[in-house]
Amino acid sequence: MPIAQPDTRILNAPQPSSITLQTHPSPLEDLSNRSFKNIICIDKPEKHIEIFPRGWPQYHWNPKDLRRTWTFVTIPREGSYVAHHEVRQDRILAAALQKGERYRVSLTDKCLGTRWWAFKDLDELDGVRLKAWREPTEGDVDEEFSYSEEEREMRERFGDGPSCMGEEPGMLAMVVEGVDAEFEIV
Question: What is the pTM of this model?
């Protein structure tokens, strides 16, 4: 069953550019990251379609090559990006929906952000290794000169080509606009 389709657009930016961002954790990803509340029956508030995950998934990711683990999308400067989500059939069947019931889908205030973003289009980042952002510290040594097995593998994959840490994650805000989505079982 398709549900809410967050329409994401750029409200205000200091640069006239598209923004590319990592979809995890945000409403642009799937329903497993706590961005959406359970789908509540408006007529019977104790009844719901459970989509809010019970546990928090653990991820192993490589901070020197984020593309290996995460998905990235571009929000065009003029335009929007729409994410489509579907509720698993077993969750729908478990809720024992009945004709005429009305339901509400809501975003939570959790996972409204991203861990990586940049003022660039994904096409501009083709061939660029995306690295986790971190605050530079005094005496930083460029990790590119490490000769670990992981670094050798990265050099084989990307060569000595460019890498990008993106912008500071806290400098991008996601704001929920509008109301919850509602639907009726027919």
Answer: 0.69
